[in-house]
Design brief:
The protein is an alpha+beta fold. Helix content is about 30%, strand content about 30%. The chain is globular and about 55 Å long.
């Protein structure tokens, strides 16, 4: 899961590489985290508006959206402000945030023989193999298990704790700057270093230097643990991110990194 997610981050950052001004998406990141279970492994959040505004990469964005599932077939790309995913040990959920014309989406679901239902007052649609779609406020939530969508609804209704209720996760998110791509993850994400939570955001601050700018925050269980990890942390993250430069420094229970990663040819 770790390697797959890092690959997705790099690919999506490439899509945004010609954008010089990033639309803040930290509020959307928090919104998605409030749908995710407290023990979520990874949340990935992409500022779709910023990517879609770039004419050079519009066709790639269209291909990405059209490949995500039947429920996106009649969504105008301009309606999607954020694309996100929630990964746990048990399931994978896609979240689309935006201003949607649900009439067209419902029409597509009906054509695909989805069955309309309701759970805790939320409209849900279920298709073959339990593929389930729910409309929660300004979000479309989609997964290949009905239980996972219902879990998101219960969390949204404050019947179960969310990822954002996890103090370790929240403390990391509160430190991340707004960016085109953001990833927040739990303790199982890094197999070789014991952390409580971490987060990475990706920007392209200077389109002419052909590098991606990474900022990361990692929380440890104590200041001593963070200090002990510092010895090998830069070398570890340089390999993990394939970074051409990296700087790490201590901040209490946290290690902060700033890295530059060469933009791959696309």
């Amino acid at each position: 899961m770790k390697a797959k997610t890092l690959t997705i981050v790099v690919v999506l950052a490439i899509l945004a590489c010609s954008i010089t001004t990033c639309t803040p998406n930290d509020s959307y990141l928090v919104q998605v985290m409030k749908l995710a279970p407290e023990d979520t492994n990874v949340v990935l959040c992409i500022d779709a508006e910023a990517i879609a505004e770039d004419p050079d990469f519009g066709y790639i964005y269209d291909a990405t959206v059209s490949s995500l599932g039947h429920e996106t077939a009649n969504i105008d790309r301009s309606a999607i402000s954020t694309l996100a995913s929630i990964s746990t040990d048990s399931y994978y959920v896609l979240v689309f945030v935006g201003d949607f014309g649900l009439k067209d989406v419902r029409g597509t679901l009906i054509e695909e023989d989805y069955v309309e239902g309701e759970y805790l007052g939320v409209e849900i649609w279920t298709g073959d193999f339990e593929h389930t779609v729910a409309f929660i406020d300004n979000m479309i939530v989609s997964s290949y298990t009905t239980d996972s969508v219902k879990a998101c609804i219960r969390i949204h209704k404050n019947e179960e704790p969310s990822m954002y209720d996890n103090e370790d996760m929240k403390s990391v998110v509160d430190k991340l700057p707004a960016s085109v791509v953001s990833v927040v993850f739990g303790p199982d994400y890094m197999s070789d270093i014991e952390i409580l939570a971490g987060g990475i955001c990706v920007q392209n601050q200077n389109r002419e230097d052909e590098v991606l700018d990474y900022t990361g925050w990692y929380r440890f269980d104590s200041e001593v643990s963070a200090e002990d990890a510092m010895e090998d942390f830069e070398d570890y993250m340089r390999i993990e991110l394939d970074a051409i430069s990296i700087n790490a420094h201590l901040s209490g229970q946290f290690i902060e990194i700033a890295a530059e990663v060469e933009l791959p040819e696309y």
